[in-house]
Amino acid sequence: MQPDVQAYHKALQADDKIICDALHNLICESLPKAENKVWHSHPVWFIDGNPIVGYHKLKNCVRLLFWSGQSFDEPGLIPEGKFKAAEARYTSAEQIHTKDLKRWLKKSAAIQWDYKNIVKRKGKLERLK
Question: Which residue segments constitute the domains of the chain, with CATH numbers given?
């Protein structure tokens, strides 16, 4: 685990840490070549500099966010924001369905919108791959 991600986890309450540890392990296992670091205060994984997936402790849950998740066509993900992101929220580790999460992670590597260059394109997203 990266030192900055380890520090993020260390600051969590016990129940939230269990959720984040489970998410971290499944993400690292499924995306072994993705770069991982704390970005905008929470753990995020990148492929070729493009954000793919991350999680963040919110007031009453842990949010798992897929930057291109609205394009996955998955009923377990809820649209988030005005771009292509989608999320799942967890209040316990038992809510994490490993089979679903692994499928979403596979799609996150295959289905990407170019967030890395969104500022250059003045807010316009383009599909990658």
Answer: 3-128 (3.90.1150.200)
| 90 C-beta neighbours (distance < 10 Å), count | 20
pLDDT digits (tens, 9 = 90+) for 3-55: 999 999 999 999 999 999 999 999 999 999 999 999 999 999 999 999 999 99
User: Which residues, in sequence order, are CB contacts of 32 under 8 Å at separation 6+?
Assistant: none
What 3 state SS string does 7-62 have? HHHHCCCHHHHHHHHHHHHHHHHHCCCCEEEEECCEEEEEECCEEEEEEEECCCCE
With CA atoms as reference, report the closest residue to 49 among 63, 62, 64, 33: 33
